[in-house]
């Protein structure tokens, strides 16, 4: 199933029918994509998506980055709770958004690794950056 993880209905159906999933995305809030693929994501090293920080942060920037990560967790838990309820009812077992997306076979990330911050990624996360990157 070729689907967008922001609307996980395709992933719910793929799990129900035991089909492999290919995710196509630019970025995912709250780093759920990173956690679902089990990539390391320490807030002291990896800056949050909408922060202006790089991987070279001062101590105060690292603390602010950590606070952003905590606030993202609570915000995204509220935003994605309807999908978690839907998946739990349809699949007949408790599911979180991270558990739901952890069954993805391949993650096609529409970003260029050079434009974003350096971070460790898993082998099933493939950067396909040229399709939406404007020339400077």
From TrEMBL:
Subcellular location(s): the record lists: Membrane
The keyword Aminoacyl-tRNA synthetase is annotated on this UniProt entry: no
Q: Where is the signal peptide?
A: none
Q: How does it sit in the membrane?
A: Single-pass membrane protein
Query: What InterPro entries does UniProt report for this protein, alphabetically?
Result: UDP-glycosyltransferase, UDP_glucos_trans
Entry-linked Pfam families: UDPGT
Entry-linked PANTHER family: EG:EG0003.4 PROTEIN-RELATED, UDP GLUCURONOSYLTRANSFERASE FAMILY 1 MEMBER A1
The family annotation for this protein states: Belongs to the UDP-glycosyltransferase family.
Q: What is this protein called?
A: UDP-glucuronosyltransferase 1-5
